[in-house]
Structure formats: structure tokens, C-alpha cells
Amino acid sequence: xxxxxxxxxxxxxxxxxxxLHAFVALIIVSLLTGxxxxxxxxxxxxxxxxxxxxxxxxxxxxxxFGILLGNLLSITGATGVISRRLxxxxxxxxxxWALALTGFVIxxxxxxxxxxxxxxxxxxxVAVQTGQPLVPLAIAMAAPLSVTHCFxxxxxxxTVVVNTLHADLGRTLLFGLIVAVPVGxxxxxxxxxxxxxxxAHPPKDIFQGTDEIPDNPPSFAASVMxxxxxxxxxxxxxxxxxxxxxxxxxxxxxxxxxxxxxxVMTAVLALLFFLVFLRRxxxxxxxxxxxxxxxxxxxxxxxxxAGGAYKQVLLxxxxxxxxxxxxxxxxxxxxxxxxxxxxxxxxxxGSATVAGMTAAGIILPLVETSxxxxxxxxxxxxxxxxxxxxxxxxxxxxxxxxxxxxxxxxFKTWTVMETVVGILGLLFVLGLSILI
Length: 436
Known about the structure:
By secondary structure, the chain is mainly α. It contains 21 helices and no strands. It is globular, with a radius of gyration of 21 Å.
């Protein structure tokens, strides 16, 4: 744990004090941490390669197609149409409510990374149209995605925790909604009120035309259908996995179309056909304009890759698992202990999914012997798995680079928001344990 603390301090100093690029700083700290922890040079390089590959394998296509989809929605006027309708319903003063509700609905069916890149243009558009600060709107958009990710199946991490603990999926989903709604409101609506003076400097040209609507804009229905198409495809895949037998042809195709990468790509192609080609615009020219922003995320991709390397080094050295095993021997109430173990692993290695899965395996014997509700334990572990996101979490760097925050301001916004979700989530779980 001392090594973990030192590595984080060195990383922060390299970036904030010595102005080293985050990509370079993360790789340097990954190398130093791995060697100090006892990994051989060969093992260390294999760990770094695995960390980069695993992280980017699941995110690079989503980032690429997501930034294209976001810009195409903006260039065609779809984002402007959606944001104007949302603001017309909620009013400019309740813009955070509009974004939070949208984020919650999208987050029910879409993985965090995919949801983030789909909704980020909407936060930009609302900021432009209302003149409100970008950071509170960005938190209002991102917080519900995080809440649904940690509490609600069928998200991968939550589902694995449920299965590991032999919890009932339906009861977990019901209890999860009871916890997720108030926690989401606190993190997405009330917390952003404290962030109005934090400046944002997003990369130049990362989004095109967020404040423009063409003379002949698409309809609201068409705009929404294209925007939520990835959600529909992913929800269809989940429904097929739950209802159709393995090997069924329809299940295989829905699983393919519902893959987050394929779903976002399909939305891009559908937009080009319905909102560009059929409206007598040149798909090539529109796509060329939208693709101009791909260069803006090159630095983001490198930073996320390096963050994956750092996370894998911490994982392969076993820091989080050893400390969590020690924590499990303490005389603490089971639900608090499950939360604490998950939070410890989360802080140690960065990945919420790995933290949840590992904590579930450690806590399972305690659940079986203590009579603790496995459904509530799954939620407590989910709350702990998002605690204190910091420099070893790819989501931390995504938020920082996408909205152009300083390192200190990312801690004040993203890290605190995740901590609010984690602490309030535990409190509501403990409250439920008294009532049921």
C-alpha cells in the first residue's frame, strides 16, 4: 500500500508539477512501480502490453465511432434538435435534469464508455444553447452512467457480482433501482451546483457544429431514433441472451448487433443513410467534416492506453487483493465489509469491474455463513467498486481529456462525484437492510 501511495504521488507530481504529458508520466510510473514491486523486466513488459491491449481492445472502436456519431449528430442538426426539445420540456434552469434523465435511460442498456461518447455532444450542445458552465452539465450527464454501471444488471460487472454471490437477478435489479434513483439525483443534480466556477478547456474541434441547426433539420423523432439506436441494439442483445436458448440463430445475430462496438458503428451507418443520403447531402463530405475531430482524441487514446498499463501493473503485483484479504478478517458488519473490500481494490487497481468481481469472490464465504442478503451485498460491492476514481482509472482520464480539465479540477469533479455515488450507495443499501 505504501508503494501504491508513492506511485500515485509521483504520477501527480510528474503531471502537475513537472508538466509531463500524462501518457509519458503513466508509462514511467508503470515501469517504476512494476520493477519496485518485484516484476522482472520481461514480466513487466508483458504486463504493460496486456494492460494496453485489454484496455484499448474494449474501447478504441467505441471511441472512434462514438466521436464520429457525436459529430454527425451535431453536423446534421440532430443534437441541436434533441437539446432544444429537452430544454423546451425542462427549461434552461433544469438543464441538468434533462441531461441526468437522458443519461439514466441510456445507461440502463449501454456500457459506460459507449454511453459517454454518445452523450458528451449533448452536454456540449446544451452548454452552448443555455450559456451554462460545461462542467456541471458534464457531471449531470456522466453521473447516471456511473450509477447504472455499478448497481444495475445487465451491466457486466454487476451481473458477474450477482452470479458470484448467487443472488436473485430480479430482486437485485429492483433493489438496485431503489438505490440508484436517489443516488443518481444527488450526484447528477445537487453535486453539480458546487462546480459552476470550474473552467473547462476541451480539445479544439473535438465536436463540430454543436451550436448550429441547418435550415432543414431532421425531425425530433428521427434524431432520437438514431441517437438511441445503439441502446436499442444492446437492449435487444440482452433480451435475447435472457430469453432465447444458446445456439439460437436470432440470439447469435442479436448478440453480434448488440456488441457495443457494432451497435455504435451501425448507428453511424444509419445516420449517414437516413439523415444524409436520403436528404440529398453528400455522405462523403459530411463524414470528412466529422472525421476532422478524430485527431483531437489521439492524445486521449494514448492516455487511456497508458492508464490501462498502470492498472495492469497494480493488478499483477497483487497489491489490491492482498490488502482486501486482510480487510476481510476485520470485525466489521458484512455489508460494510463488502463495500470496504471493493473500495480498497478499486483504489488499488482502478477497474470498477475487476474490483467488484474480486470483492465478490472474497466476500462469498461470509455471505453464505452470515445470512446476509446476497442482493444487498451485490449492491454494497457495486457502491464500493466506484469509490475514489483517480489516476489509475481510464474513466478519470476520459473525463479529464474530453472536457479539458486540469488534474486538480478532475479530482474535484470526477473523483468526488464517484465518491459521492459510492458513499451514498452504501448508506441506502444499509437503509434497505433495515427495512427488508
